[in-house]
Amino acid sequence: MPEYPQGRSMVLARRGVVATDHPLASAAGIRVLEQSGNAIDAAVCVAATLGVVTPMMTGIGGDTFIVYYQADSGQVLALNGSGAAPQGATPEFFRRRGFETMPLRGMLSPSVPGAVDAMAEADGGRSANSSSLLSIIRRRAIRLLRRWPSGSRRSPRC
């Protein structure tokens, strides 16, 4: 135990590390690692879990940035999962609507969420053969919701 008390719950593991702002999300990521998943598998599970336990802070409908080590190539890679503008969002589209620059607020300002595509890219397409990454996230989040009653201190299982 730490020498100094802290206000956050701890999730302890012997052979892996997952750090999040919620102990249930950390526990879910550790479970994936314990079940022979890799860091990307754990990150996808953590993302789904955080979307359930802290929906006001995160979700798969946003952007993500991933830096990871790819063991087979020995490279450190970075993925920019910031949302792209929709194909039809051309300068002419905005000019026809009276804008001189891209609007910062309102219905015409959002981008296409990039989180799911970035996670699929980091996953290397492994999940694309049997089912989509989004369906894996959905299944894990639904499983978490079914097994984690409101107010429970049990750790989720993705």
Name a few traits of the molecule.
single chain; 158 residues; alpha+beta; two-stranded antiparallel ribbon; 5 helices; 35% helix; 9% strand
Instruction: Please give the number of β-strands.
Output: 2
- Tell me, briefly, the overall form: elongated
Structure classification: alpha+beta
How are helices and strands ordered from N to C? Answer: HHEEHHH
Q: What proportion of the residues is helical, as a percent range?
A: 25-40%
Tell me the strand order in the biggest sheet: 1-2
Q: What is the domain total for the residues? A: 1
Residue runs with pLDDT of under 50 for 5 or more positions: 127-131
Tally the helices: what do you get? 5
Mean pLDDT across the residues is 77
Distance between the termini: 27 Å
Give the strand content: 5-15%
**Gyration radius over CA:** 19 Å
**Sheet having the most strands:** 2 strands, antiparallel
How would you summarize this macromolecular structure in one to three sentences?
The protein has one domain (23-147).
How would you sum up this structure, described in words?
With 158 residues, the chain is of the alpha+beta class. The protein has one domain (23-147). It is built from five helices and two strands; from the N terminus they run ααββααα. A two-stranded antiparallel sheet has the order 1-2. Helix 1 packs antiparallel against helix 2. The model is unreliable at 127-131 (pLDDT under 50).
